[in-house]
């Protein structure tokens, strides 16, 4: 063969190393009027590019031309090679019979090394068709010849293909061995596209072995590699969607699959890939609770697979089709028979999905009362409980639980559910991201429901409480894995804050969004989230099972814990206290959810003065909520404190609005276990507290300035709080009075001036994350107490007369203090003893102790000092924190819910970087107590991010509130805390101290105390 031939033939490996360059060079060869042999190679290269990355119709035209030119050149080996490429393209275009015929001719024309390459490509086609036995046979014949010829590239491809076939058959160990061998070979080549494909395949292997974080990381790495090559990634999308579904992210998988299908249709891409994308979209739609969408996608996929003669895939698509029909309530004998037939075919194929089909057949049969048929199918499905990846074992335990229920064995049901949920617990703890842990619980929802049902029948209230706790707020049982010290992640979060701040400023200044900034913000969000999802769990669960006796001992005789369990759509109240657990039936969950939404709408209206007429309507809705949620249990709450443990779907209920709870010491907890952990959490030594004031609040965050004055800290800076000392609503001033508070110098409802009409301490709670700034504060800075040091931005008020200029940060130090005398001299305040005999009406002896403790360790961050890195440093390990800032809840991505700081949003992902979040934290911002309900019964949001990190108590708000009305509530709350009260006690007293008007009452109801501090 000549040197010129060698040069042209180099284009074939190049198409998988640098595809676009190979395409350009092949087009250049054709432009030079080459001989038939060279032209055949060039057309084949263009055909491969079009087949894999473009229009299959163009691919077929080029490949047929390449075949004809190879025949003209009288080169049987060249013709055999082209026939194999053509066969792959024909199969991908849905012409299976023609494709297999092309392979027959190719195998006959080729010899030795060439025939081995043809056999490899036919093995690939057998895999595409789901005929795995034939695929393994052809690749088995090809690999020794390729190795003997020292063909590194094709040997690596063959090993990768064999590993992929092994994975389809559930042989993970064999696949790992082949992937490892192939990777060693790829490292010796420059085949960048093939290397990316190898990384993608390793991601698939990680997924099949149950390692979701590794799978996501590897698939993302493969996507980056493909992006550098400029090639589409339809197969990668299919695999990524499978992983997303296993991680509980089915809506995202559906969106990605549909987008990829549209892109594929736009370029006239492979029909085989289109069918596979439709199948994955159908599965995602079913898991996302969209059975009709699933039906449509699955039915089309079945037709396409049937036309392509891809029985393996057609059978999987029929399984999804039957599942979607069952989800729409179409249970019938025909459906049982169809599911059983699918299960038999999948078992014959050796497909891992066979137990799912048997479980489906058994479940439908049970619904029809066909117990004998159900037992037969469920027994087959139950065999998978003893081996395989976690989700396959869970399928087996679910089948076993249904068998036990059909047999009337409550004990058998509970044992199967326990074993299945243990498997899921082990799987969840391999996930580092709290979002994945929460969403993964959806896989165990059926087991949890079966266990609760069986415990109610056989074990009474105590057993129902145990199983309610077994599956409630499990994501809080262990802290999330700390995000790694990943420079790319850290720089991404910094860039995200900057872009988000610029986008917010543009919306505020011009009133219109800036599309370029919003696109970049979304890109950075995706990058941050992606890197977070890659984290692998390292912390096992606490290993402690919930102990009802321990709970009752901690409650004692005075405290009641009310846990709400939902069975068959009805609320069951488990009332714990006085050494026993009692059960009461209340209303329907759906009705309670609707009523809660009405209440939330009413509270939003009451945040504006002038809506007083709605107050009776909101109170009446509160009474209806009580009947639906507590029922007869409301009459048995006693007179002491109450802890409410609601299910995730009731997280928006303002519990203090319920008449039976309105005057009580009331706290809310995601679970009884979480409450016990909070009770056992000790505060950090030192009593350090942090006060943070974010920008743009209608009140200017007035309570922070007043609290700083109370604790002896001077505040100031750009954006300082208007008014003079003692002039702000509820300012302690000289006497420390709170409007309406007992013992206050200016007590009584009339002490608070009129409220602005639109001051709400929040941004808009939209799913796209856009926040609308509130009115900017006006007025002058003021001194608020016996402070010795100012904290804030460039416009700080001057310090005491004996202060001298400080360091380059612009702070001031008392005369004689040397730089570096303390770790952070400009933020730790050493104040003189409180000159007031009585702090806000608190008993002098108690006030002196708390005042000395707080003043000596109080940090105030405002103005330019309230930047995210600084705020996080101060919050870490603090005894208490109070943050006044705009809050924005992101229903679409709850871990991007945020508090607005001087340099941009402080998001939940930021809080998860804390070694220990503050022991107590007060969030005087609206929507900070809003959550996204995900998984089986999990909540994602700011409060639930704090609780596993060391926070024992949180005060937060579930609705928009009036900025000015928040100030007296917060001051009264701190008054109670200074007196040594818990958050729940102090919040109860603070509500009682407010003026008795609609705005203030609504503000009080909107805030809840979470935890036990």
TrEMBL record:
Pfam families: CHAT. Residues 824-837 have a biased composition (Basic and acidic residues). Residues 741-751 have a biased composition (Gly residues). Residues 724-740 have a biased composition (Low complexity). Residues 676-697, 721-847 are annotated as: Disordered. PANTHER family: HTH-TYPE TRANSCRIPTIONAL REGULATOR RV0890C-RELATED, REGULATOR-RELATED. This is CHAT domain-containing protein. The lineage of its organism: Bacteria, Bacillati, Actinomycetota, Actinomycetes, Kitasatosporales.
